[in-house]
């Protein structure tokens, strides 16, 4: 069951809306075994990398593509640093719609490009930044042939807010004290705030962005000019959101700790929210949910930055045990 069928009464759909789903949602909320204890908090990881295409984008894409099909769109278009690309391509394929995807040339993880290509999307690498690619998408979408499915499409935000409903359910009806998540374009921060509003919760949202937005190793949040900046700033002014800048060294360290301490392999940008918790230091004993937005298999090249290569040994017990003992 996807997010539309599960949360139909809380989404902008009706009986005439075709449901395009890949079974998104119902991602696990994993209690921390070690990091939470070290931070002195009741820490849980909402692992959105378990969505069909490996990222949180699938929640909003199900709603956005369903509504585009309902409106008679000829196709969908998006700019992407990777996850939106693979999600839009997959859901468009499911809906039998053309998908056009613009990505900054040479800046997208190979796994995400592969996902986008294999389902038949028209992938174009733009000689420029994500922001320039998005401007072109907006202009093309204004022509009426394609529906924009970036998070500027309000149906994306509606779908993404459903993660909050699941978190509350998985906590047995309790509202977390803090939700920490990465901040690239800001759409997910806005979506979580909306979901919390609808739940009547005032959880503190920690929104973690890279210190060097243009060049961060966390490619999924490599966005210099967040599309939802004004909305996020309004949430900050209202005391709902606390933006935190984290460095690549912090992101990398927490990415490694998530894997080696908790057994969770996420993409580097997902670890930004966890890195931010070291800055804000939630009150001891508080319930904290860290949103891990994408699976580690989305960006396997990055693993080379934090691990040694495998070792080739002779197929003998002696050689194997000798290497293990090093």
Molecular structure report:
This protein is α/β, with parallel strands linked by helices. It folds into 2 domains: 3-56 and 155-305, Rossmann fold (3-Layer(aba) Sandwich); 57-153, Rossmann fold (3-Layer(aba) Sandwich), CATH 3.40.50.1100. It is built from 13 helices and 10 strands. The protein has helices spanning 3-6, 35-39, 57-70, 83-95, 110-118, 130-142, 154-160, 162-170, 187-199, 229-237, 248-262, 272-280, 317-324; strands at 29-31, 42-47, 75-79, 98-104, 122-126, 146-148, 178-182, 204-210, 241-246, 287-292. The longest helix has 15 residues, at 248-262. The mean pLDDT is 94.
Task: Give the neighbour order of strands across the main sheet.
Answer: 1-2-10-7-8-9
**Secondary-structure element order, N to C:** HEHEHEHEHEHEHHEHEHEHHEH
> What is the helix content?
25-40%
Q: Provide the domain count.
A: 2
Structural class: alpha/beta
- CATH top level label of the largest domain: Alpha Beta
Q: Strand share of the residues?
A: 15-25%
Number of helices: 13
In quaternary terms, these chains amount to: single chain
Rg, Cα atoms, Å: 20 Å
């Amino acid at each position: 069951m996807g997010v539309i069928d599960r949360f139909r009464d809380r989404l902008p759909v009706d009986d005439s809306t075709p449901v395009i789903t890949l079974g998104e949602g119902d991602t696990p909320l994993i209690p921390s075994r070690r990091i939470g204890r070290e931070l002195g908090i009741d820490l849980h990881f909402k692992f959105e990398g378990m969505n069909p295409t490996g990222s949180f984008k699938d929640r909003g894409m199900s709603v956005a593509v369903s509504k585009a099909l309902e409106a008679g769109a000829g196709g969908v278009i998006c700019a992407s640093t990777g996850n939106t690309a693979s999600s839009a391509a997959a859901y468009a394929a499911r809906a039998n719609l053309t998908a056009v995807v613009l990505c900054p040339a040479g800046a997208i993880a190979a796994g995400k490009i592969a996902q986008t290509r294999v389902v038949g999307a028209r992938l174009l690498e733009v000689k420029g930044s994500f922001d320039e690619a998005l401007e072109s998408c907006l202009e093309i979408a204004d022509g009426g042939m394609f529906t924009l499915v970036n998070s500027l499409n309000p149906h994306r935000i509606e779908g993404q807010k459903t993660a909050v409903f699941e978190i509350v359910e998985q906590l047995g009806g309790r509202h977390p004290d803090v939700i920490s998540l990465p901040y690239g374009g800001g759409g997910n921060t806005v979506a979580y705030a909306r979901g919390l509003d609808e739940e009547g919760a005032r959880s503190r949202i920690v929104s973690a962005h890279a210190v060097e937005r243009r060049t961060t190793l966390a490619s999924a949040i490599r966005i210099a000019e967040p599309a939802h900046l004004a909305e996020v700033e309004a949430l900050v002014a209202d005391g709902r959101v606390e933006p935190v800048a984290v460095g690549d060294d912090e992101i990398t360290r927490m990415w490694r700790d998530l894997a080696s301490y908790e057994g969770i392999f996420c993409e580097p940008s997902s670890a930004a929210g966890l890195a931010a918790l070291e800055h804000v230091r939630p009150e001891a004993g508080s319930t904290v949910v860290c949103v891990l937005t994408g699976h580690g298999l989305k960006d396997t090249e990055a693993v080379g930055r934090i691990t040694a290569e495998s070792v080739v040994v002779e197929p003998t017990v002696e050689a194997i045990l000798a290497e293990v003992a090093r």
